[in-house]
Description:
seven-stranded mixed beta sheet, alpha+beta
Amino acid sequence: MHMIRSGKFADKKVLIIDKDPKQSNDRTWCFWKKEAHIFEGVVYRKWNELFFHGKDFSETLKIEPYHYNMVRGIDFYNYCLGVIRQHKNFHIWKDEVSHVFSDSKATGVVVNGKAILCDYVFNSILFKKPELKKSNYWLLQHFKGWVIKTKEPKFEDDKATLMDFRVSQQHGTAFCYVLPLSANKALVEYTLFTKTLLDQQEYSNGLKEYIAHFLGIHDYEVEEEEFGVIPMTNFKFPVGKHRLVHIGTAGGQTKGSSGYTFNFIQKHSAAIVERLSKNRSPLIKKSIDRFGFYDSVLLHILYHDQLPGKEIFTDLFKFNSAPAVLKFLDNETSLTEEWKIISTLPTMPFMKAAVSRMV
Length: 359
């Protein structure tokens, strides 16, 4: 939790409105970090080696100096709520926000038809799919995961599976990842990058097939289930206006080409808090960046089925060190480092896509 310790906003009354009571383990966040972070205390598992299975390429990726972190939803919620309750100026209201607004006259939210005015609104709600331009792409990263428990030890709990593309690609880019919680328990996730969602049974069938054929597990019980959808797009989400600040996916903090969000949200939140603590506007205007261009190029290729995602991610990890790829996916590389990575990808498809994006 990024808290304001000084400045005129330190003792402001803060109202958090959420329709979800946050009492269930409904999702899992995974991210890589070099150093300790503010959520270090709620990291459930951590790995330094990751399996990768791609097109004619399988490797154990050594990711040091990075560590691959797993945070369970319930632990994250409990930690954040615990910190919030230590501050008397924070109040939690369980209800549904129908609208947010801000103009030169007023800023606020609408709940049950009633407007609540405030100094600032920090909004993480994506109320609807935005109106796209012809130059915008909109794919969905959707996934279903099971925490499965086996009677016998079946997992190497010191290694996780980052991506396993050996599953069928009939719907589009598809892979599984495995996060071992112990030698006989793991979260197995079936993930796709496609234009539309599948029927729920198809996700379950994908999980069953992967667990049976690639993990070699036939006797297990499903202890937990999660499902999620993340937009993958080059649409430029508005950062906000006046005293309305969009955060999370609604504020453009989801990386368009991969769906990774957690680290970007933390960086954005830290920047907002820093500005508030210095009595500056928390509205951070986005500059044109080359990583957004890279994302657009990859989305162009995936959207138009010009090259299988399986081949792209295989080349990334086959011809580059894992730490270099992770740094690139975090938007933290230099131009020289980026050129080395991009040059390992199929030249013509990416060149054509890049030209198309520039035109």
